[in-house]
Amino acid sequence: MRPTTEDELAGIIRAATGPLRITGGGTRGLLGEGEPLETGGLTGIVLYEPAALTLVVRAGTPLAEVEAALAAEGQRLPFEPGDMGALLGRNGASTIGGVVATNASGPRRVQAGACRDALIGVRFVDGRGTLIRNGGRVMKNVTGYDLVKLLAGSRGSLGVLTEVAFKLQPIPPASATLILPGLSPARAVAAMSAALGSPYDVTGAAHLPGIGTLIRLEGLAASVGYRVGRLLVALAPYGQAVVERDADAAAALWRQVRDAAPFHGRAGDVWRISVRPSDGPEVAARLGGEVVMDWGGGLIWALYPAGMDARAPLAGIAGHATRVRGGSRDVPALPPEPAAVAALTAGLRAQFDPRAIFASGR
Q: 302 or 35: whose pLDDT is higher?
């Protein structure tokens, strides 16, 4: 099923007698179970006001199309969403609705916030087939319950997104990436913490196997130049940094971090682990394998033997781990919820999806 209007989508949901499997481009992990319901027919930019830094777009619109339209005006989505298709071995085109449904947020989150922080409005159809609007199309709009934040990251378990609105960010005229080669995870986290704790407005701090520890600066050319000089001094205890000033070369490095590129096409399960940055080195040591570290060490992508539970060796470390690639009947992909959170989740689903047609497998 591939509706092209909100009314058609609402009718499909009202008529559903069993679970529906909501898919956009199929590039973002969990697919769930049930009859496929594709959002790819709900496409197009509804409203784009570059002067106001706002965008309203239908949920099935390919992410690449959105980014191209923004780039033509010198703007971008602040949160740097990744493309998981290659990691998962899928050929679909990532959609903007899938980005919101998974709260997909890349390296720039350390400075600009997550997807949900840039989201200012949503339209979606709930499990009763009712169209719900929340938020607005301008940044000053404030209305009712904050369903905007609730829908971001809900993985389609509360409703089917049809339209999303964002605040945008200008693309800065200059950038530079400092590369510190050869650091251990512990030294890498220490260097990233020093950079993020500095007054130099770092917009990315990551550790990429085989490349080094990356620190990104963006802004006006003179400002970037000054901050690079100051950070070279501040990070001198961690080694001699190489400065990559070529925008295309630096962007390629950050795409590798964003998309967990070192694990593309390699055997094993891939886990996404969120912890305190200070715990990042301990996570890397306990897993004993290759890791990509982002968000200053707070986000870890890990390659782990197929079918094995990466949560087991991490007992006692606060955080959560999600398997984004691979499968095992004995190991759930999503982390278990504490009892209090599970009760809240059940209550929300009872309100938005009383027939449980969206929850299966997610």
A: 302
